Amino acid sequence: MADQHNVVAEHRLSLQERLGSDMVLTEASEMLRYCRDWHGDVTSAAVAVLRPRSTAEVAAAVTACRVLGLSIVPQGGNTGLVLGGIPDAPERQVILSLERLNRIRTIDADDFSAVVEAGCILSELKDAIADKGMFFPLALGAQGSCRIGGNVSTNAGGINVLRYGMTRELVLGLEVVLADGTIFEGLSTLRKDNRGIDLKQLFIGAEGTLGIITAVSIKLTPYPDHVATALLALASLDDAITLYRRARRDCCDLMSAFEFMPPLAFDLAREAMPDLPIPIAGDYPAYVLMEISGSGLIDVNDLMERFLEGVMTDGLVVDGTIASSQAQARSLWLIREGMNEGQAKRGSHMRSDVSVPLSKLASFVSDAEAAISQALPDCISVSYGHVGDGNVHLNVLPPTDLLGEARDQVIYKAKTVLNEVVDLYQGSISAEHGIGRLKRADFESRLPDTRRKLLAAVKHAVDPHLLFNPGCQLNLNGIS
Amino acid sequence: MADQHNVVAEHRLSLQERLGSDMVLTEASEMLRYCRDWHGDVTSAAVAVLRPRSTAEVAAAVTACRVLGLSIVPQGGNTGLVLGGIPDAPERQVILSLERLNRIRTIDADDFSAVVEAGCILSELKDAIADKGMFFPLALGAQGSCRIGGNVSTNAGGINVLRYGMTRELVLGLEVVLADGTIFEGLSTLRKDNRGIDLKQLFIGAEGTLGIITAVSIKLTPYPDHVATALLALASLDDAITLYRRARRDCCDLMSAFEFMPPLAFDLAREAMPDLPIPIAGDYPAYVLMEISGSGLIDVNDLMERFLEGVMTDGLVVDGTIASSQAQARSLWLIREGMNEGQAKRGSHMRSDVSVPLSKLASFVSDAEAAISQALPDCISVSYGHVGDGNVHLNVLPPTDLLGEARDQVIYKAKTVLNEVVDLYQGSISAEHGIGRLKRADFESRLPDTRRKLLAAVKHAVDPHLLFNPGCQLNLNGIS
Questions:
Q1: Which residues does the UniProt record annotate as the domain FAD-binding PCMH-type (chains A, B) (predicted)?
Q2: Helices (H), B273-319
């Protein structure tokens, strides 16, 4: 153990000598916020935290680590939900934080594109783009803290996926530092470029296992000045999915969000925000928060009104309210956000992020909630989310007075029961959060042999020394 | 030479014995249509043409070829424009045609998805999907002959890219036969699935160099019942790009096509279709064929009228006509299609498919046409295409009486001059057609070393024996 400490101390000294002390944090107190995950469930440690300010400094850091035999855990805003950015071998891993590599290089409204460094905070980026009359559609709860490099590395989803796609579909080009310290220079802003195999796709969603994304060129669209937001009450999740299908046809590509919430959403939101106004009276079995948006000549309010008139006449929507101001729209979205905070207030719980084919979603949620209720009768299931994408967050809240290891066991059991139902429906155990370290075992146990071999072959081809994020997504060397 | 013939004859016999004579064509007359490219510019040969009817038969064919030391050129509808599906080493390559693997496995309107085999002809697929009220947006000139596996392998573009993206964005999952004969089973219809590195992305646009795509699951959208089509006259290409930007804002995501044409388009179209009505009088410097489409409650005619009122008031559009019937819309599109046929009637010519950043497109076309005019004063440049994507087909027509080798030299010279201007603008020499064998040298000479190494590493990792389409995209073994 003493030897191991000496080795770590020597590595720290070497890193400081090679990279300069400004780039290298080694004090436990300074490193803490990088070593603890977003939910605060796990606190790890690292040999050092490296904080380069330029792509060249990232390349130097990669070379230094390779020479020293240290592996690298890349980290953006540290808002990941699956421990993809937290070391699991603190004595031989460094965290490489992109937070100081955070310039916006260009925003070109005429080109509908921007080039930004990996460390840009998503909301700051969106604001700077909005100042030019343009819009970057990626929108998720953590946008005030997450960074674009992390969004790309995890192929982040969020509330606007049904219209604009996952992060992958918003990326035009990447700059990536590779394992040999060379730079993959692919920051094109071309909308179409079909020159052979599209290598950048490999790094999107790789969670930092193949290289370090240092900058991204992204697609922009005109800013949607006109937004219509409605909260709708329905008889069931099944009806919500019927409503989604109809909205896809009636409102076409102008629908930008369609979020499902159960009645419990309001209780949970109120627990987090006691003064939150709840604009629908009564207690209905299902709710949908729906948004239509557009720019220029598009009249989204008229469209929303005509749509609701039709679906209320047909009895598909039983009650509803359209926000009459931006402030009211904001307070409708606060219900959706507050329900997350409310769950956190009830203590640690089983969070999930699963998807199934859209046509099976209602039956899946019904089966999964029944299975959980049977296995864990004292727990509460709460299912909500981006149902238009077939993606539901089916969370399980243990009784508030259940604590410690007993609580952890219930959470583990809930996950196991849920995943069994996901498998029956040929669904995904990770619709948007990724694999990281948290879901690795569940991922690997479901991985067909052909796919595993191909993943391993690609990893070895691109990162032959397994330098980047070992233990994330796959356990390839057996020692992570 | 006699020996070589014997080897080929033995290989043919072995293939027939292993795979059955129904799967294996070896007669030159039967193989001809597979060995000649779409334009008829090149006629090659092959050891055999294999025509499997199932994924299992594809796997058997792959294994047989690997054992015999033959490499495989996969082929869909043989409509490619860059010789990606035509052998360049006839005595050691077989063509594997997917044309008999052409079932539609499922169309699920409730799921907005379909699963189809690689050999499905695109237009047949679109029709079958339309019968269910759904829409598959991929639309290109060759759609009556091209096959979906080829569309995916080449990441095909077409006229609807500005709204729906390239083929890559329409793919939910793939089934691929790999070099070892195993099957990558990834025919998911999940809209969101973020389980690690997305391996299917590697095969999209790989032009058959990494595996053989045997089936595809695709995204569908509701059928756009309402379509407004307009032909607009403008003062310049510059104005056309200004118009595009305004249309992106005013018409939002409802614009589905925006094609630029020069005045010469009408002459060319009339040369191919003498009776084609030309609905705009006068001779303007630039034309745009624009389409807005939607389903359900969207009134596209009203939107088009209000849009045109604004841009004509502002003088951006100087004349225009909105199609008043489907037949009239069809005849507007015939101008666009006819101009391609008209070019073909003027004899072989330099076809290009380049892209530059949108904001530089007008200046690029001006510079490129000037450079060509200076280098080749007797030639005519014709620039048209998907300018909203920054993608222009800048073709060069030699004088009709220039024939044979002299004509080929002019075509080569035109390509060289054009590509030099593309390089100045940091553009792409292939916006949508791919690399194949035709553009390989131009691709490789522009390939940064980092990217080349990564491409080679991935190729060797996925196809270690260089079984698939050697000589396409990259020359890796020096013998292709």
A1: 42-223
A2: 300-313
Kindly report, residue by residue over A209-259, the tens digit of the pLDDT: 999 999 999 999 999 999 999 999 999 999 999 999 999 999 999 999 999
Q: Which residue of A has its CA nearest to B192?
A: A431
User: How far does A477 lie from chain B, in Å, by closest CA?
Assistant: 17
In a domain, A379, yes or no: yes
Instruction: Report the distance separating Cα B245 and Cα A434, nearest Å.
Output: 36
Q: In chain A, which residues have their Cβ closer than 8 Å to the Cβ of B197?
A: 202, 205-206, 209-210, 455, 458, 473
Query: Domain ends where: A424, A445, A468?
Result: A424
What is the count of structural domains for chain B? 4
**Which of B113, B191, B244, B358 is the best substitution to test chain A (most A C-beta atoms within 10 A)?**
B191
What is the predicted pLDDT for the residue at B413? 98
**Over pLDDT 70: what percentage of chain A?**
99
Q: How far is B272 from chain A (nearest CA, A)?
A: 29
Mutate one of B195, B221, B242 to test the A interface: name it (highest A CB count within 10 A).
B195
Q: In which band, very low, low, confident or very high, does the pLDDT at B2 lie, cut at 50, 70 and 90?
A: low
Residues in chain B closer than 8 A to A172 (CB atoms): none
pLDDT, one tens digit per residue, over B225-264 is 999 999 999 999 999 999 999 999 999 999 999 999 999 9
Residue B457 CA to residue B469 CA, distance in Å, equals: 16
Residue to substitute from A213, A220, A225, A252, interface B, most B β-carbons within 10 A: A252
Considering only the beta carbons, identify the residue of B194, B205, B250 that sits closest to A205: B194
Q: Which CATH number belongs to the domain containing residue A267 in this structure?
A: 3.30.70.2190
Question: Using CB atoms, which residue from B161, B197, B296 is nearest to A192?
Answer: B161
DSSP codes, A51-70: --SSHHHHHHHHHHHHHHT-
Of B296, B306, B390, the CB nearest to A190: B390
- CATH at A199: 3.30.465.10
Alpha-carbon separation of residue B155 from A19, B100, B207, B348 (angstroms): 42, 21, 8, 26
User: Is pLDDT at B471 greater than 90 in this prediction?
Assistant: yes
Average pLDDT, stretch B349-353?
95
pLDDT tens digits for A378-429? 999 999 999 889 999 999 999 999 999 999 999 999 999 999 999 999 999 9
Q: Are B197 and A455 within 8 A, CB to CB?
A: yes
Contacts of A168 in chain B (CB under 8 A): 198
In a domain, A286, yes or no: yes
Residue of A nearest to B254 (CA): A253
Minimal Cα–Cα distance from A436 to chain B, Å? 8
| Same domain membership, residue B95 and residue B110 | no
- Express each pLDDT in A244-303 by its tens digit: 999 999 999 999 999 999 999 999 999 999 999 888 877 899 999 999 999 999 999 999
| Domain carrying residue B309 | 226-345
Position A480 scores a pLDDT of: 35
Average pLDDT, chain B: 95
3-state secondary structure B302-363: HHHHHHHHHHHHCCCCCEEEECCCHHHHHHHHHHHHHHHHHHHHCCCCECCCEECCHHHHHH
Whether residue B395 is predicted with pLDDT greater than 90 in this model: the reply is: yes
Q: Assess if residue A291 is contained within a domain.
A: yes
Same domain, B53 and B111: no
B358 within a domain of the structure (yes/no) = yes
CA distance B302 to B98: 44
Query: What does the DSSP 8-state code read for residue B386?
Result: -
Q: What is the DSSP letter of B353?
A: -
